[in-house]
Structures are given as C-alpha cells and as structure tokens.
Amino acid sequence: MNPKGHMVRWMLGDGEIVRRFLEAKLQVHPDVVSYVREKNDPALLERIISQVPHGTLVVSSAHIPDLSPEKDGERFLPEPDLEIISGKSGDSPEKNRFEDFFPYFRDRYTRLAEILRSRVNPVPIEALTRSTRYRQEECMVIGMVLDVRTTTNGHRLVDLEDPTGQIPALFNRDRPGFPDAERLLPDEVIGARGRLSQDGRLLFAEQLVRPDVPLTHAPFTSNRPGKAVLISDIHAGSSTFLEEAWERFINWLPSSGAAYLLICGDLVDGIGVYPNQEEELTIRNIYEQYTRLGELMAGIPKEIVVVISPGNHDVVRPAEPQVAIPLEFRKGFPENCRFVENPALLSLQGVRVLMYHGRSIDDMIGLIPRASYSRPEEMMVEMLERRHLAPVYGRRTPLSPEPKDRLVIDPVPEILHTGHVHTSGITRHRGVLGVNAGCWQSQTKFQKQVNITPTPGRAVIVDLQTLEPKVMDFA
Ligand SMILES: [Fe+2]
After folding, report:
1. How far does residue 423's CA lie from ligand 1's centre (Å)?
2. Domains within the chain, CATH numbers bracketed
3. pTM > 0.70
C-alpha cells in the first residue's frame, strides 16, 4: 500500500519474468511470458515454475496450469468436403462509397475490441479523460491507432481512439511494453494498460495487448486422410514464368495424394501493373494470358479440386476484398476449378484455410523494424497477432469499405495461406500454420532493383490430419 491507501499493483515486466525462469534454470516461450504479463500475477509465475516437470528445457503454454487446449471437435462437416465459408464469387459488392469508410472502421473496431474484451477490462476513453478517479490507478483502454510516431527521445507516441474519445499514449523505450510498441501500425486495434498523467491528458502505457490467437487455441484436424497443395503467384504471360518447373509440378500432382490445390493469387502477370511491364511479357493480351493459364492447368487430375483466388496482378479491382475472376476470363479453365474472392475462407474436410494474397505484407515490411522480404512468415504472425490481414489503410493496400470488415481474422483458421512476396516461408503461431509457398517466376527486373531474391518453383503440401507441411521443390 502506498501512503494514500491506494493499492499499488506490481506490474510484471518481460525482463523480470524471463529472469525468474532463468533463475529456475528454465528457458521460456514468448507466449508464456506474454500470458504471465497479461495476468500480472506473481503467484501464477511461481506456480508455473513449481509445476514444470523435471527435465523440461523450454516452458511452453502447455505448462500453464488451468490452461487446457480448447479444441473445436464438433465441427459441422459439409458434403462435399470443400465449403467456401466466405469469399464466394459475388460476396463483395462491386462498388462502395467513400462515406462507407465510417461504418467499415467502426465494424473493425467493434469486432477486434470484442476479442480483446474477453481478456482485458477497458475503461471508455471519455470516462478516463473526464473523471479524476482514474488518475491514481492503473487502467486499460482499447483503441484504434489513429497515428503513431517516434519521439525525439526514441519513445513511441500513439493516438488511440474508441467510440467515446481519443487519448495519446506514450510507450517509454526503457519500459517492458516497448518491443510491442515498436511494431505498432496505423489502424490496428490494441489494448493499452498504464497510468494517466496528473492532468489526465496522457496515458503512460506499460503494456500493449493485441487481440491475437487465444493461447488455448488447438487447431481442428481432419478425422480422415486428405492433403492440400498450396501455391501462388504463377504469373502466366510473363517472360520470367518458369514453364519447366511448372511442368514438373503438374507431372507430380497425380502421385501427390492431394485432393485440393489452392492458388493464392497472381494467376497471370497482367497488363500495365508496373511501368514498362510490356517489355517483360510474352503474352500482351489479358484474355490470352488467362487462356494460357487454363492450358497450363489442363494436366491437373480431375479429382483434384482447384480453388483460385485473385491477386494484385489479376484482372479484377485492386481494392480488397478483391472480387473473384470474372466469368469471361474463366472459359479456358478445367471444370474442377472454383473461383473465390481475395480473401476467402474455406473448409477442407472441416480444416479452415484462410487464403489471402498478401499485398499488406508490403506495408508491414515498410513499417515494422527489422522485417524482411526474405522472411514473409514473420508478417503472417503479425497478421495473426492483430487478427487482421491488412491493418494499415492508405498506403499500398487499397481497401474497399464494406459494412463488415472481411479482413478481420475471425474465426481463427487452421491454415493461413498467403503469396505476393515471391519468397517462401512457413511458420506456426499458436497452432495456426502459416504458409507462403513462393512463386513460379524467376527474378524480375523490378525485384532486382529492390533486391528481392525470389524462391520459385515450390509447392507446399499439407496433411489435413496432422497439419504438417512439406515443401516440394520443382525449380
Ligand atoms: Fe506475384
């Protein structure tokens, strides 16, 4: 107790938590650190340490008492095995108006705040700034990031907004919450815990909470055999398209045992996507590019269901959700193809796969310190932590304002499938498998200029019973 009689709660920092585990000769997974920090309970920390079985090297979320995985075992299984949950062709309206952005962002805030509210207890910003009662206590707000910048002293200052008001929050570079604050993006929705300044106009934030995948999340797995092959970025029509690698891939498919092939955007190279693109095209007519792709897919066994979503090189509008490839461009494709929007959520034998081309990865790599095109899997984790596929509005990812923000990641999928960056990366975050297979195009002039080395000719095959991925290299 402090002299005024207020309870002063000790706020656990990451450093202290990790140190306590090290004292007990244990390494600890970052998920456990963030869980203990969120609970802010020193007794919980001691309880975990005392209950870790002898011989454990790394303490994982499985060692947290009372935290048992919540597996969604009773999933409705449709007939046939493929169900398009959202992102069916025609789900998105063709046009939206600028004034629709207000309800769009309100929906984003409401849904992400709801996810956060299951773990934290926020105060409306208006109440915080109007009343003096919060000035002595630790408090939590949930806000959308209006603006974020680094101060001259290297701290992070963020303007947070909820439906009642706005408040700036300062993350001190020497405090535990700073590594999370370093990665703050405009328009993401976060929880910030801290103390108000004396005048009530600034929140000194100590902790940042993201909606994230629940720590208890246990992915659903299929109860019978089934495999899915994941690829993206074919770029048919480009002079750098790797036809021989593609042929090896098509020849392998019948023996792969796969029931599904998912293609996550950039089916063709397109026309006029970047300056002087025509110099790098072998097919300069957009219809012919799709016809050529149809021919390239003719060898895919009829039993394999092919799901095709668009990317930024495709013929549809760039604003996301991108509509499905229009009928007039589908004529040359085999009958086993299904065309969906970008993003689209599928169920394959009950296993949910979220397909998203990944344009937002450009924005995130530009804004997140130490991010790299050679490690796209890290950006998939950033998406999952924010429960949003394209948090940043107004940069390179155009968004279409629909009444429901379809880029919110809800429900949590078993697999997040992206593309766009042409580099392969695989990750697992709290049970969710993230896959970026790469591309079917060798390095373009543009990529050479910006120093991106693609990893072409790879497909990833995932076993739906185990969610284990396997990389197949056809380059
Ligand atoms: Fe691409």
Report:
1. 10
2. 14-67 (no CATH), 119-209 (2.40.50.140), 217-473 (3.60.21.50)
3. yes
